[in-house]
Amino acid sequence: MAGHTGQKYTDLWKHQVMRENFSVIRPQIVENFVQRLLENYQDGGLEITFRKDHLEACLLSLGCDVMARERSNFESYSMCYEHVLEHARQKLCQKEQELDIIRRGHSPPEDKAGQIAELSHNMIMEVTALRTRLMDLEEETLDLKKQIRKEVQEEYEALVQALFVTCLHIKAQLLKELDHRVTQEALHRQQLDLMKIASMEKLLEDVEQQEQHLQLLTEEAKRASKLGQLQQKKIQGELRQVTPVRGSKSGCTSHSCFIFPLSFPCLSCIHSGVPHLCHSQKQQENGNIYTWVIVQAACDER
């Protein structure tokens, strides 16, 4: 309803006459299409060339403008028809009320009838205005709900996206930490294995060296034992060959003595085994001087 957009709907009953003004705004579809089309062209003198994508974009915009105009016309004409039908319905209700009053035979005075008609008309207009206001409020509420739902959905999608990205980041960090830990454990186990192998090799080498050393000592002990046995047998054999000489041969007239040359190989053993050394003498034969050691026999000591 034109002329009353800035006033309250409850104040409409104060106006005596309510006018319905309906006018359709002429859309400048052709002018806009030509203006968009001429924004990008090539002038060849006698002919004008347009790019295919530019022409398609202009045609798409033209189709959108035509659909918008048709929608606007549909809404405008629908509102106009609704207002006309509402006005006709109000008139019909008013006439029905007047006929009902006349049929009942309770015809009020003229002044009261005019007041009642005016009050009825004002009440109808006020109810209509309130109904229109209610419809506008419902539309605003619906638009507000849609907007709130859209904002909440966008925020929810943003939160879900951020949560998903955070989960992926945490997962990547956990996988990286797990790989690092597995690598460290593998290196630690490898180092332990290497240390064990080195310790075992060193232990085996030590055992082998000890066995070799023990074997050498055993062989040396065996050789020393064999050598000692051989020397003992040799000494015993030489001792068996020695005979006691008494008197002038040994140079001793009071004992039965053994004569050994000074170069006898076991003289040191005789010195240590026979404590009774009698005397020594020298003898020259063929221009050589020989030294003899005369050892007292053990039987003479008895």
Please explain how this structure is put together.
This protein is an alpha+beta fold. Among the domains are: 9-107; 242-301, no CATH class. It has five helices and six strands; from the N terminus they run αββααββαββα. The chain has helices spanning 29-37, 52-104, 110-241, 267-273, 298-301; strands spanning 42-43, 48-49, 245-247, 252-261, 277-285, 288-296. A hairpin with a 4-residue loop joins strand 3 and strand 4. Helix 1 (29-37) packs antiparallel against helix 2 (52-104). The longest helix is centred in the middle third of the chain and has 132 residues, at 110-241.
Q: What's the tally of helices?
A: 5
Report the major sheet: 4 strands, antiparallel
Mean pLDDT over all positions: 74
Radius of gyration: 72 Å
Shape descriptor: elongated
N/C terminus separation: 171 Å
Q: What is the ordering of alpha helices and beta strands?
A: HEEHHEEHEEH
What share of residues is helical?
55-70%
Low-pLDDT stretches are 1-18, 245-250, 261-277, 288-302
The strand count comes to 6
| Largest sheet: spatial strand order | 3-4-6-5
Structural class by helix and strand composition: alpha+beta
Give the DSSP E fraction (strand runs of 2 or more residues): 5-15%
- What oligomeric assembly is this protein in? single chain
Strand-helix topology:
Blueprint: H1 29-37, E1 42-43, E2 48-49, H2 52-104, H3 110-241, E3 245-247, E4 252-261, H4 267-273, E5 277-285, E6 288-296, H5 298-301
Antiparallel strand pairs: 1-2, 3-4, 4-6, 5-6
Helix pairs in contact: 1-2
